[in-house]
Write a structure and sequence with these properties.
Blueprint lengths: L11 E10 L2 E11 L5 E4 L6 H9 L6 E6 L10 E4 L10 H11 L4 H14 L15 H13 L5 E5 L7 H16 L3 E5 L3 H7 L2 E6 L2 E7 H6 L4 H7 L6
Parallel strand pairs: 3-7, 3-8, 5-6, 6-7
Antiparallel strand pairs: 1-2, 1-4, 8-9
Amino acid sequence: MTMRAPVSNLPVQFEDVGIIAGGVTILDGISLTLTPGPPTVLIGPNGSGKTTLLRAAMGLIKPTRGRIAWAGSGTMPPHRRAIVLQRPAMLRRSALGNLRYALAKAGVVRAEREARAAELLEIVGMKNLAERPARKLSGGEQQRLALARALAREPELLFLDEPTASLDPAATKAIEDVIRAVMARGIKVVMSTHDLGEAKRLAGDIVFMHRGRIIETGPAAEFFAAQRTAEARLFLSGELLV
């Protein structure tokens, strides 16, 4: 399995996108282009719109106004894209059984599923846990299994919503190692995180959000060296943004 098909989903372009739910503005005037390359990392306070932006980029939420285009098309179905949410649900099966199911749903023929499942377990460092019931895995192991299930789709774009939230340092490192392995296969990662250290370690570019808007965006090294906005400076200094 190469996982290095041409990136036909990119760029993903948000053009003045607004999303309103229940009368509440979740995203407001989002204009953003996601391009091939190192991970794009979304940061910002809770409730800033990071998860909604990821879901919209995946094609799970339609804009209330504006347009989202994948490789120039506003109607492209969400093929070769995958998303891992913050609390992924585990099927009542073993880790291997979860992957068999994911591979079947991805259209992989039965004769190839065992070898593919073994390779995916190897990628996420869980070969020795193949027969463990998925719901008995630790939080970090479940997150790695969720990543493996997402990779069963052979995505060109992988969206991750707070993939290391509430994990201890060892589990966080294991997840970050998987993300680096994914990057090495030419898959574009777009992720949100509450962990600024993680953002510094993984990001190629940063998108800083607050109150449903993009306040600042640019290369990660430049963003962390010198912020252009007062909101970003306050956020990085640990101040509460309300």
